[in-house]
Amino acid sequence: MAVATLDVVVIDCPDPTALARFYQQVLGGEIENAGRRWVDLFLPAGPRLAFQEAPDFRPPSWPSADDSQQLHLDLRVTDIESAQERVLELGARALDLDDDGGKRNFRVYADPAGHPFCLIRP
């Protein structure tokens, strides 16, 4: 029996509104509380991401010696090439694009605040 249900994934960052807008352009959805220290992004499929101001935020290093990413999002896409082009246009940074000629089903990026995320093929 479950003890709880997931309500929201909260991401620390230096500029909550800017990072919410990045993910809104990637995932869609509606932003609430723009310009505040806590910004919500309500996604079309129901879940919610929240972005919390952390003035002393330091992004995780990827890859790090201890393989610690703190947290990352896996974002499913139908066309990884066009999705990659779009996230890079939106301000993402490529971290690991070597998908072994398509044998590996993901590529790794950093969002504008430095959090790793993956685009994955089904």
Note down, in words, how this protein is organized.
- The chain has helices spanning 16-27, 80-89; strands at 9-13, 30-32, 38-42, 48-53, 73-76, 93-96, 106-110, 116-120.
- The chain has 122 residues and is α/β, with parallel strands linked by helices.
- The longest helix has 12 residues, at 16-27.
- The mean pLDDT is 88.
List the helices and strands and how they pair.
Elements: E1 9-13, H1 16-27, E2 30-32, E3 38-42, E4 48-53, E5 73-76, H2 80-89, E6 93-96, E7 106-110, E8 116-120
Parallel strand pairs: 1-4, 5-8
Antiparallel strand pairs: 2-3, 3-4, 6-7, 7-8
Report the total helices: 2
Measured between the Cα atoms of the first and last residue, the distance is 30 Å
Helix content: 10-25%
Low-confidence sequence ranges: none
Content-based structural category? alpha/beta
| Strand order in space, largest sheet | 1-4-3-2
Q: Sheet with the most strands?
A: 4 strands, mixed
In percent terms, what proportion of residues is strand? 25-35%
What is the global morphology? globular
Order of helices and strands: EHEEEEHEEE
Oligomer: single chain
Mean pLDDT value: 88
Radius of gyration: 15 Å
Number of strands: 8
Could you give a quick summary of the protein structure above?
The protein has 122 residues and is an alpha/beta fold. It is built from 2 helices and 8 strands; from the N terminus they run βαββββαβββ.
Name the descriptors.
122 residues, alpha/beta, four-stranded mixed sheet
